[in-house]
Design goal:
about 45% helix; about 230 residues; Arc Repressor Mutant, subunit A; Jelly Rolls; homodimer; DNA-binding; four-stranded antiparallel sheet
Chain lengths: ~230, ~230
DNA sequence: TCAAAATTGTCATGAATCCGACAGTTAGAA
DNA sequence: TTCTAACTGTCGGATTCATGACAATTTTGA
């Protein structure tokens, strides 16, 4: 609970750039149509919506509460992300007809739509608009993930930090993350991030504060992120 | 034409793990319906199917020939991949209503289906099976790309090479790629790959030949890939 | 068959990054 | 207000990896 706020942002970023974002791929109208294809289920904290390796017979649309996604054994968890209301999980495995890729465990009390594969598919066959929307959402996510691959390949920490700052800056051009958190997000060391931020500060592209980075020159940051 | 065979394998892998695979396995009926929504176009070597930043009004399904996908200016190209027959390109941008993310240039003589957005969308509305198939294909691709992110994060070249060998080994437990090709696929240098292969060979997990790696101990490789 | 091209193997050097350590600073809670 | 935990800033050594260079081997095509 200590690092709750930071943790929250951290996981949100990871989830977004990783594949299971909190975006809502369906409009209210679509949801209405979909509602007939799903049941509402409630999960107690700590219980699983599904587990890695299980046959994927259903996807879930979260309504309330949050869910941790992780891979690997329960003891040696590799958390992939945490998602909240609006997120769709399990769809990749369900549509592909493969076992679940990760496990999904309720963090708090969770309410979710439960779409059974056998009920959903006929529904989608009748409502191409929903399918198309889902398609667009998945392609958007695919593009984001591809971009992430490009960033991980070859780029220096400096460029990665610049890229993250551009993406994460809020409406006041601020990024409220600790350097340690940024380091984890990028898979770099805290010291390297510190060095990179100093360099950006030296060039006058950003200002730094306690658990805060303020973007001064977004254009330059974009340029730095593209280098290398 | 010189590096044709290797190139083929190399790019097939890149395409598969990156985002533009031969991923549209549609049934004859679906293809027939699709055919009515698209024209066949031919492109001469060096000409563009589309360019980065252009308004994305169409997607292409390659029938013959190969296409380079790259980002950035023509002079300072950052090749994202090369795809061949069966690949679908431009769909992300077209469906999302955004400009093309990358440029696509014909390597040799290219024949492709050209799906105009305005003609395709109504067709999809009438043929949900096609849309659903497209959705499944994109989700499958998304999953692959996510896996790739996991492999690129934090791992040493040794672990990355081990992971690639496990994924790419054919039914005879062989991987017919040159070390230079493997290096490009992983975003590493040829020398590092050579060193990693030597280490794996020393441990008795693989044998190497000319443009060939034979997996002797898949279990150990999986363990090595998980390290770090 | 034989030369050209592709590939493997190896080495030295330098750059980027990680890691451990520690001092100074800030925020938040008692 | 004061204390404590979290965070920033910085240093030097160790490690990984890229780069360029070159010889040896294998394949390929004329």
């Amino acid at each position: 609970m200590k690092e709750n706020q930071t943790d929250q942002q951290h996981l949100a970023w990871l989830a977004r750039s990783f594949g299971r974002p909190d975006y809502l791929p369906l409009s209210p109208d679509d949801l209405k149509a979909l509602a007939e294809a799903g049941d509402i289920v409630k999960k107690y904290p700590g219980t699983h919506l599904f587990k890695e390796g299980e046959s994927a017979t259903a996807a879930f649309l979260l309504r309330e509460g949050e869910v941790d996604l992780y891979r690997g054994a329960t003891d040696r968890r590799d958390v992939v992300g945490r998602v909240g209301p609006g997120a769709v999980i399990g769809d990749i495995a369900m549509f592909s007809g493969q076992p679940y890729i990760s496990s999904a465990r309720a963090v708090g009390h969770v309410t979710a739509f439960h779409f059974d594969r056998d009920r959903l598919l006929p529904k989608l066959a009748l409502s191409p608009a929903i399918t198309l929307r889902w398609l667009v959402a998945s392609l958007t996510q695919l593009e984001r993930t591809q971009r992430r691959v490009l960033n991980l390949m070859h780029k220096t920490v400096l460029a990665q930090v610049a890229g993250l700052l551009v993406n994460e800056a809020d409406d006041r051009a601020e990024v409220a993350l600790s350097q340690a958190t940024i380091a984890i997000l990028l898979g770099a060391s805290r010291q390297s991030v510190n060095e990179a931020l100093n360099e950006l500060k030296r060039r006058g592209h950003v200002e730094t504060g306690y658990r805060l980075v303020r973007v001064l020159d977004s254009e330059s940051l974009i340029r730095v992120a593209a280098e290398d």
